[in-house]
Design a protein that fits this description.
Structural class of chain A: mainly alpha
Largest interface: A-B, 22 and 35 residues
Helix content of chain A: over 70%
Number of helices of chain B: 16
CATH class of the largest domain in chain B: Alpha Beta
Number of strands of chain B: 17
Strand content of chain A: under 5%
Number of domains of chain A: 2
Number of domains of chain B: 2
CATH superfamily of the largest domain in chain A: MetI-like
Helix content of chain B: 25-40%
Structural class of chain B: alpha/beta
Shape of chain A: flat
Oligomer: heterodimer
Distance between the termini of chain B: 8 Å
CATH topology of the largest domain in chain B: Rossmann fold
CATH topology of the largest domain in chain A: MetI-like fold
Chain lengths: 262, 407
Amino acid sequence: MSDTGAGVRTGIVAAAEPPHHRRTLAGYLLMPALLALVCLALYLYVSSQELDSIEARSLNAASLTKATWEHVQLTAVSTLLTLIIAIPLGVLLTRPFTRRIRPYLLTVLTIGQAVPTIAVLVLLAVAFLFLGFQAAVVGLVLYAIIPVLLNTMVGLEQVDESVLEAGRGMGISKFGVLTRLELPLSVPIILAGVRTALVINVGTATLTTYINAGGLGDIIVAGLSTNRVLVQIVGAALTAVLALLIDYLAGIAEDFLRPKGL
Amino acid sequence: MTSTTVNNRSTGKVMIRLEDLTKRFPGQKHNAVDNLTLDIHEGEIVVLVGPSGCGKTTTMKMINRIIEPTSGRIILDGEDVTTTDPDALRRRIGYVIQQVGLFPHLTIGENIATVPKLLGWDSKRVTARVDELLEMVNLAPESYRNRYPKQLSGGQKQRVGVARALGADPDVMLMDEPFGAIDPITRDRLQNEFLRLQSEVRKTIVFVTHDIDEAIKMGDRIAILQDASKIAQYDTPEQILTAPANDFVSDFIGNGASLKRLNLSHVSDIELTQWPTVQLGTDHDQALEMLRRSDRSALLVLDESGRPRRWVGADDLHRGAGRPLDEIGLPAGAMVEPRATLSDALNELITARYSVTIVVDAKGIYQGVVDIEQINEAIRGMRSSAVARARAGLAEGAEAGSTGGQP
């Protein structure tokens, strides 16, 4: 569908160009419009209700903005750290000299992922008395490393062997082959891992409220502990909207960062 | 092992010398390549051919050290490159592989520019070189330069692969079954184009294949390899076909060596027979008179510019009285150009009406004909000269105490 759209707009030239994988403008606008609509509906519904003092404490512009902003920070910082750790690790684990330790390391990391995040967070808090934003980031990073690492490794390994041999055969250095062939050619798969990590982090960041790291979890937990359904709904809806928005932005990034010609 | 003596056609200097080259892969009991010594002369296509697993690809990949030799030396253009910087070495050597291995995220132009850019050419020179190379391999630069590899057919990809290998104008090219994954018709065309290209660029080429027919067609010299890259015979295609050094070689050539030999001679190498011809518009009585005086059963009708048009026999002339010559008789088919091989000529001859193949030049103008007698003659000639050369080699070998490369 998007292909025909692009074809119509650019006319005959489009036929000679690489096929478009990008969406049309309408395709790009659909998701934000939908999310804005949800937020608007939520706002109208909340303003039409009589709020008691407990509800009013959570459901005001200042505390919602603060919680959302904290949530975004938690997600952004933990994802960034995840990438800084997982992508180089993925590169290392696909080099020939790490072949021996590869299975052991992957097993350890996968077991790590099997432990629930909440357990990790509580462990950090109880065993190390490590609380707040930084502890939350540590927990989130530990959890998100695996998808990015695995996607990086799969991405690097699926690169056509003959492309690499041709590159080496022409005298491109080992490092050059990595940066100019292997990484660009695995960008789509690595980005899919990054997108997964982002979505995981947005979701699990709601749990970090238990170790006093803020975020939208504050709102949800406040609603739960005071038995205010409206507060719970607002917190949950905002988390969902944020998750969808971030996933949407990551999708756009994938479209634009994917090398042409693939 | 003695290095194989090569004395015919070797005018140039030795471009690549492999000395006692050995490769044993870790964990294996036997050498993949065992003590190979081989001289490759400048400007020649040397084909390494042999059964699967004989080590031919390993041998080739040791030349640019994609596979590092276990022992032995590689001498390129007089310089020992066995332990020099491999990346610098590879930039001097064009490399073409069967799967092509174009970089899918780069345009055709960027692919071809790879080595020139690595060597630090300025962008103007690189652009000019890319266009030059695209034209060399018959791809129009303006329509292919900015395309991506996935938009090309297999044959086009391999042309780009060759252009990319020629990028920085290397003296030496390594080609690993470059036309192996391409359909037979396209392969034939690419082979011909490549030979034409090679006649212009005169690179030293090491070409690996498992197909003896391709080896005969492409090679100036063929090295037939046995297990562990032992040379069974290293010689010109003519010699290999007419005087196989041992049973392994004759088995490997297989049946039809005489037919294969016909691929080595060209129509231009033999003297053409003349056939009685008439111009279009000649009247029938005159044509009949010519036919009577010749000892042939038909005349070849040529148009104003000398292109063959029809075969006309006596019957046709009688029956078709009054009609112009280009409306009677049979259309003249079965034509070849002088650079066609005798095998092509024979092929046409078999299907032709009067058992001759018409030879025309590039413009289609009649030159003469080839008949079965001439082809026979050519085969006899090849055989006797090959036997003479083999006898000379035998005498020489007896003096040296060993014949070339034979185990």
